[in-house]
Amino acid sequence: MKVAILAPVAWRTPPLHYGPWEQIASNIAEGLIKKGLDVTLFATGDSITAGKLEAVCERGYQQDPNQDAKVLECLHISNLMEKASNFDIIHNNFDFLPLTFSAFIKTPIITTIHGFSSQKIVPVYKKYNATTHYVSISNADRCPELEYLATVYNGIDTRDFEFIPSPENYLLYFGRIHHDKGTAEAIDIAKKSGHKLIIAGIIQDERYYKETVEPRLNEQAVYIGHAGPEERKKLLGKAIALLHPINFDEPFGLSVAEAMLCGTPVIAFNKGAMPELIQHQQTGFLVNNVNEAVEAVSQIRSINRHKCHTWALSQFSSDKMVDDYLGLYQKILA
């Protein structure tokens, strides 16, 4: 089977730090290659893959702002579509725009919908619903106006993380510095519970950081910038808990699954896909506000870290994800 994996071109695939869509595209591609499939990854030129690489640019537009994002996206997607006949199936991890080419090619397209940036993009998905195939990354992120082939949870390369049974005494916030992700709420939880908080992630909203986060940083709440793979593994594994007080309906949450894989329980606001990722009172706590989160911190030692690890391993491994997608490819081609 010849498979084309279409990744975004904002960041390298896999990303150096932030880039969840790029990370999942990489995990799918490399997992399929290990199973003996002929895989071509369409991504930036500095991307890393054991398969074939197709690129129209050396670096992503988030890394090289001199590039025009929309122009780069058009060149990138058209490069794949012009070569579509070389593949048995195309796996789109790049949102709705590639669907607009689908009527001009014969190769079937399966699209992982990694989230809806706005309801304004739904009409594109609706137009191509009958002729392409959609996969959701959680049941919570399904649009009632669309039909789905399946839900496939995002999968983590388990070799990139290790189980740590005995943590250090700090809480962790790991993610974009943005109101949606609840950076300020994480600081509130840490301060009210009397614990140190380490904050790691890219600053996506500079104004939010300057006005809401930075003035409250001190020895108890420390911002360390973005964390690469090795540092991420250590930070997630050694925390007593990951704080995930999101202010939006998050479609998945990679850091939540990664933390649990390391044995670290998660305290999250009960929104979006969190009830699908976290087993309440077994692998973490689903709470509704800061005060409930503070109470959860006081009970965090009651969570069995090995249970967190085995749960994440059974549900969110890249091996499981790749097997699920391979089954869907075979179903489509049959």
Word description of this protein:
It is a single chain. The chain folds into two domains: 2-155 and 318-333, Rossmann fold, CATH 3.40.50.2000; 158-315, Glycogen Phosphorylase B (Rossmann fold, 3-Layer(aba) Sandwich). Helix content is 33%, strand content 15%. It contains eleven helices and 13 strands. The chain has helices spanning 20-34, 69-81, 122-127, 183-193, 206-213, 229-238, 254-261, 274-277, 290-298, 305-315, 318-333; strands at residues 2-6, 38-42, 52-54, 89-92, 109-113, 133-136, 150-151, 171-174, 197-200, 221-223, 241-244, 266-269, 284-287. Helix 1 links the parallel strand 1 and strand 2 (38-42). The radius of gyration is 20 Å and the shape is globular.
SSE layout and pairings?
Layout: E1 2-6, H1 20-34, E2 38-42, E3 52-54, H2 69-81, E4 89-92, E5 109-113, H3 122-127, E6 133-136, E7 150-151, E8 171-174, H4 183-193, E9 197-200, H5 206-213, E10 221-223, H6 229-238, E11 241-244, H7 254-261, E12 266-269, H8 274-277, E13 284-287, H9 290-298, H10 305-315, H11 318-333
Parallel strand pairs: 1-2, 1-4, 2-3, 4-5, 5-6, 6-7, 8-9, 8-11, 9-10, 11-12, 12-13
Overview features:
single chain; 334 residues; alpha/beta; Rossmann fold; 2 domains; six-stranded parallel β-sheet; 11 helices; 33% helix; 15% strand; globular
